[in-house]
Amino acid sequence: MPDQVSVLFVCLGNICRSPTAEGVFRQLVTEQGMTEHLHIDSCGTGNWHIGKSPDARAMAAADRRGVDISDLRARQIKAEDLDRFDYVLVMDRQNLADVRDIWHQNGGTEPRLFLEFGESGQAEVPDPYYGGEDGFERVLDLIHEASQGLLEDIRGRLA
């Protein structure tokens, strides 16, 4: 049985969905007193925002729910990430296809859609970048719900 599990959240640019997922999941893990058992990170498939803070709207929406993601900085996924992380969780089918290309070439942890851990019935976390504030709220709802299912899965892995 492992004593630490690592989770990587992946979206397109690593400024909206995946840093939100990292922040929400990090907070849930902290509330459950499990921080010593988890390593949590996020990244994007694209390279446009490397080194940048999350989108201001994503930070504001998270902050309204008591989640601080202002310390996060965007980075691009690397092949080694698939060897380093136990869970590689992507936000949509295009992210899944992009990360699977890396996986097919290099092996490692097979990427999965993050919302497989939720009960919303949705397969994808919609990208709120080009929409309004309500899109960021919807993303938070989906991520929070799937994070609870993910934590239960990890508890089983740690047992």
UniProtKB/TrEMBL annotation:
Gene3D superfamilies with a match to the protein in the record: 3.40.50.2300
Protein's UniProt keywords contain Hydrolase: yes
A single GO molecular function term of this UniProt record: protein tyrosine phosphatase activity
Pfam families: LMWPc
Matches recorded under InterPro entries: LMW_PTPase (IPR050438), Ptyr_pPase (IPR023485), Ptyr_pPase_sf (IPR036196), Tyr_phospatase_low_mol_wt (IPR017867)
Phosphotyrosine protein phosphatase I domain ranges (all copies): 5-153
Superkingdom of source: Bacteria
Active site: 11 (nucleophile), 17, 127 (proton donor)
Alphabetized PANTHER family for the sequence: LOW MOLECULAR WEIGHT PHOSPHOTYROSINE PROTEIN PHOSPHATASE, LOW MOLECULAR WEIGHT PROTEIN TYROSINE PHOSPHATASE
Similarity annotation: Belongs to the low molecular weight phosphotyrosine protein phosphatase family.
Protein name (record): protein-tyrosine-phosphatase
Organism name: Marinobacter excellens LAMA 842
Highest classification ranks of the organism: Bacteria, Pseudomonadati, Pseudomonadota, Gammaproteobacteria, Pseudomonadales
